[in-house]
Amino acid sequence: MSSLRIKQNGKLVKEIILDEAKSYLAGRKEGADIYMEAAKAISREHFILKFDQAWTVEVLSRFGDIQFNNDRVRQFTLQEDSVFSIYPYDFEFIKEDPKVIAASQPMPNDLPIMAAEENMIVGDADEFEKTRVGGVSFVPHIQFMDENQFLGSLVVLPEQNEWIAGRETSCEIIINDHRVSRKQFKIAREGNSYFIVDLGSVNGTSLNSKILTPNESVPIRSGDRIQVLDTLMMFELKNKDFDNELKKIQDANMQNPEHTNLPALHTGVSIAHTQATQNSLVHYTSEQAPLPSLYQNQNQGLAPYVEQNGLNYNYQQAPMPEGEYEEYDDSGADKKKQIRLLLVAAVVLVFMFVGYSEFLAPKKPVKTANPNDPFSKLSSSELSLLKQSYEIATDYYFKKSFQLSYDEAQKIIKKLEDTGIQYKKTKFGLEVDDLLKNATIAIEAQREIDRHNKEMEVKQKQDQIVSTVYNECEKKLGSNPEMTLAEYDECAREAVMINPEHPQRQSAVLKIQAHIEEKNRKAAEQKNYRERVAKLKSIYDRAYSSEKSGNLLQAIDEYKVVLKQDLPDPEELKDISHRKIASIQKMISTKSTKFVDDAEKFASQKKYKEAIDQFRKAQKVNPIDSSFEDRIASLKRDLAKEIKPIWDESVIEEQYNQVECMENKSCAIKKWKEILEMDVRDGEYYSKALVKLKKYGAH
CA 24, CA 48: separation in Å to the nearest integer? Predict the structure, then answer.
């Protein structure tokens, strides 16, 4: 399951659980799957996020690229924890694949537990194994460090979701340096994650020697280093219950001497590594932290460490020595017990005063020569000077002293090259190289600005020279609106040769073109008027033709079309069409009335078939009169009542085989033929009689 976190100005505004069967449109268009508020750099349809073996982002906007891995790109594939930006939005791609780790063997029930092992979750590991230890609560700290990177003061951050750092006394993290901004940067907590944001400071903020972009949220992890000018800090997450848990373990060992041969910490992870976390995830190497020397040879009660599918720490209680349960006398048992208690107390005391400090106290790193270290050719003082030079170059860059920044970075590169270090294969070398490139770009940009300013100065002088010529010609144009463009250019020939794109000439060209366009517009309007009048006349002529050919209903519809037209009507054809419609409708009403009268007359004589035919003629003349259909249906029912007795007799005769007509004898065929003559074609008995006649071959 993957998700996308959306942040605006560093604050989480939305999180979307991604469906691989669906694509997501992002932009300021209403209805977009990922809606972004309107901003200068955001298009209506800015990019699309879709899954094709992997989640990919494709930019749809013609102008707005996406910031990804410090580059502006238009298409890229998302990896775990990928972050891309469109100011003021940041998008964080989260790919989760948790695996639950459970202990394969039971632990002793009487040992204190710092964290429930059944709650440990291990995700996909990078250089460190990531483990979440259930039940452990971590508190953020800021550890100040001196120029030699020795630990200084420690600031425990209060329980809240945001902490400000700066020189103001109201800040949670106070930096005692007058050069630092009042509010330099902030650290924010969102769920189990932490982020750092430079608050637009003057001198900038760096995270792990990388300068932060102002007002851009960047993830921060336990152990990351923050630097502001000469002030170096380290962000840490520490277990606030660490000391209490240690006390519980020592008390438990005192009360259970049988287990004093076990290591004092039985948590499923080493103590040293429970302090190192990445946001809410604890980081530790696959090797367990070394035990104090006191316990190096006392692990007979501890099963060997086994690494299985990540991290499993399974311990079995040591087998009891032979003879442990043999009978003995009371006096001997008491003596042994006293000796054992004395030994346990001695071990605990030694551990508390020697082993504890050795195991838990921070150790100063011992630097040894590493043949694989590319910087081993440099002395520690040379390396320190290079780092200081890099900080100076970075400071110059943010103060916009790009040439000084370039010169300082160039010195570092030259020193590395002279020493024979392949700096482009090191993180420090790449950072210096990036700074050198950025300074080069900035210098070139400044040169371009200076060159542009000089060009503008020359251009202003030329505009001043030609302005007089254009002013004279503009006066002539005002007095003669019929002046053509060729005549104007001839008047201002000297100025046009120097600057044909001068605003005064452009204005004159627009005036001349506007005058010509106005003349053309009026001519076009007259032409369009004539064409529209002719169009209305054509529609009217078509309706008149239908009327003359006898298609009265069609003529009415076409005259109505004439009335609906939004066309000029100088001949008053719409009034004529209105009168034509009334005349035709009156004619139709007269004809239909005659047919109705004849039909009612036939109906009174019980000639229902003839009456139905007359009503259908009236219906044909005037199809919009729905009463004709109702009257026809009524007459058909009356006709069916008259035919029914004849049909019933024919059915009986058919049952008694009196189908064929005999001399002086009634037959079914004769009755069926009579029904065909009496009934209309769509009548109830007409089709039945026709089927019977066809059956017996009499039709």
Answer: 6
